[in-house]
Amino acid sequence: MARPESKLEFDTDWKYSPAPESTDHIRIDPQYELFIGGKFVAPRERQYFDTINPAREKTLARVARADRGDVDRAVVAARRAYVRAWSKLKPAERGKYLYRIARMLQERSREFAVIESLDGGKPIRESRDVDVPLAAAHFFYYAGWADKLEYAFPGRRASPLGVAGQIIPWNFPLLMAAWKIAPALACGNTVVLKPAETTPLTALKLAELMRDVDLPPGVVNIVTGAGDTGAAIVEHPDVDKIAFTGSTEVGRLIQRRLAGTGKHYTLELGGKAANVIFADAAIDQAVEGIVNGIFFNQGHVCCAGSRLLVQESVADEVIAKLKERMETLIVGDPLDKNTDIGAINSAAQLEKIEQYLRIGQAEGGEMYQSSCSLPETGYWCRPTLFSGVSQSNRVVQEEIFGPVLSMQTFRTFQEALDKANNTPYGLSGGVWTDKGAKIFKMTRGIRAGVIWANTFNKFDPSAPFGGYKESGMGREGGLHGLGAYVELY
Amino acid sequence: MARRRNSPQSSSPSRLRESIAVRPPPSRTRERVGVRTQARKGKDAGRTRARVPVAKTYKLYIDGKFPRSESGRYYPLQRDDDLVIANVCRGSRKDFRDAVVAARNACGPWSQASAYLRGQILYRAAEMLEGRSKQFAAELTLQGVERRRAEDEVTATIDRLVYYAGWADKYQQVFSAVNPVATSHFNFSVLEPMGVVAIVAPDSSGLLGLVSNVAPAVAGGNTCVVLASQSLPLCAVSFAEVLHAADFPAGVINVLTGLKEELIEQFASHMDVNAVICGDADAAAERKIQELAADNIKRVVLRGGVDWNVAAAQSPYAISDTQETKTTWHPIGS
Fold this sequence. Notes:
- The complex is a heterodimer.
- By secondary structure, chain A is α/β, with parallel strands linked by helices.
- Chain A has two domains: 31-269 and 468-488, Aldehyde Dehydrogenase, Chain A, domain 1 (3-Layer(aba) Sandwich); 274-453, Aldehyde Dehydrogenase, Chain A, domain 2, CATH 3.40.309.
- Chain A has 15 helices and 20 strands.
- In chain A, strands 14-15-16-13-12-17-18 form a seven-stranded mixed beta sheet, sandwiched between helices. A six-stranded mixed beta sheet of chain A has the order 9-8-7-10-11-19, with helices on both faces. Chain A has a three-stranded mixed beta sheet with strand order 1-5-4, with helices on one face.
- In chain A, helix 12 (394-397) links the parallel strand 15 (384-387) and strand 16 (404-410).
- The longest helix of chain A is centred in the first third of the chain and has 22 residues, at 124-145.
- Chain B has a single domain, classed as 3-Layer(aba) Sandwich (Aldehyde Dehydrogenase, Chain A, domain 1), CATH 3.40.605.10.
- Chain B has helices at 13-22, 93-112, 115-131, 133-142, 147-167, 171-175, 208-219, 234-245, 260-269, 283-293, 316-320; strands at 30-32, 36-39, 74-78, 84-89, 177-178, 185-193, 196-200, 223-227, 253-256, 275-278, 299-302, 323-331.
- The radius of gyration of chain B is 22 Å and the shape is globular.
- Chain B starts with 12 loop residues before the first helix and ends with a strand.
């Protein structure tokens, strides 16, 4: 398809000058310890691992590796804080600590945004405008719930669970920490949280912030490490609740391991969301929605709109416009304010994505990638579109967790709905049409926990988030998110 | 059908023929209220009956039909004095799979049925049960429940059906929300049924325990497969007749009888079941259920040790236990 006359030639006529976010105001220590009982303490075995900047492949800091004994220390500290301090505090006072956290996070928001982009590779535009503000908003939202829980559960009395063990992923490191810690604390629990091993820095910065707001020691403990550390939290006998965000594969293991223990658990797992474009949609807006749905945060998003379903009559138009739009996406330095797609989070994740690119082509899919230039060092993946794929292809069925979109067409409403639901996942979905009745029919029909109609990838602390089917159980956010951290009597 | 004294070990054809030939002796004649009831004592003993009551065959309830187990197996329900009350279908794993297919097929229409309709059908079940309360009390008594307690259990069950009938069009308003998001979007969260729920009914309460678990699941638009109490299975089968007469669409509630030990793992592991509710089980069985449920991230609801007779055993939270929360976003603008 010929380029429209109005197309701006970004490659030739226009050049973006580098617009890097300044890093001179942030401090990253060469080494980070575990945050236990309100203090930074060295791990017992003195084991450390490096956290690297995926855009530069350079080490940012050495971070403590918590073993079983360290996790035990953290749980003991959390239990002591629960018994002696946190459960004795008036709910309104608990809330005031959370307000303090929210406020201080707002004050230091740029610093957190820069570190988030350095450590995780996401564009500063997103960490600055999405991750950090939402994290602060989350603390602010749940702060107010602390002394109002009797209004959340009519006819019942809500009581905290005790010590919550929380394991979070690398795609939204600070935001996920906020999603986990804020409701847990508001409901009166104490916390042992493990950030992902590739992105521990903002959680450790948050630990500093917890100390700075004078949160009672042990109410929040941060233990860094890999899968072993997470397993130690899951298996610790004095942990009352496990909250996990990550892959369905690991979620399944956790659910199995918790069998018979009586521990409460909530799981927020993988997804393979359909983004359904009807012929009567506003096509230009839909294309923006497709781009935001799959290329937001390099596609490292559990609720990413990774399966595009387009009504056949507009498929050519949508593909042409989508390819044009993909051409304009800037892949590169996460700290550059013009960057749309940052670095892939780790070498391992890049390898996994590239493996899926090979699989998709071997299965007969037609692969299109934008022609953008990539930096020489770092982990990068061009925005990618697979067309000519069918429902049984692995790139259509499996979560890739990268900037890789598969595209299929449909003719009827029912075909679209059947294809959208033909997955073991059920986290999110999207629908684009100008017809109100069709929106409600589709949003009701898709078996998923979050549905975006004529929009995509929107989040808010007051809006419950979580999956159907194999995308997990329980909700985070909103009034419904409180249920994950209380026992009802 | 002749009355026979047998046990799984002694059910060889020759023994059966023998018992048919030999019995019933006049002294053991029983009156029936739809089932074999207590022996007449004293002056009635030995009297020749004017009419032989018609005994009932207890079968499964799958997809709106009453089949026997595809396996042809049964287990005898016996009284203390060794008399066989009924030969109960020993449902197989295949019966369970068939029931899940029926429940899955019924899922779409039932979850889209109006809450008003679901409430009316549940209420209709209460009406049907009220009219047959004597039969259910007699069945419970026959299975060893003391008469007064049996009558109380039946009336409590009727009232429980009315309770959940009333919730069908109200829980949504209690548990859903319009969320005040900071961006220019209209955002709301509603409850939707999880889908197919596998229920292992409590052992201790043959009728009320089963209904207390089934009613909230279907009031919320789920469909279910329920395994009746192994020791008190008769009312479950008769309750299926109530469901049938109440116009529950085929497949919405499927009732199996059988051996818990044999079926419980299938209930927990089936990949097209969304949630499993366990009325009561020992710690090892509960653990097994939870382990197997992880295969497809099934939701597990353990309701062991509940006293089903008290008002606290009913609540809208029993409905929300098998509901998902769906959040929908739409921009506000032109």
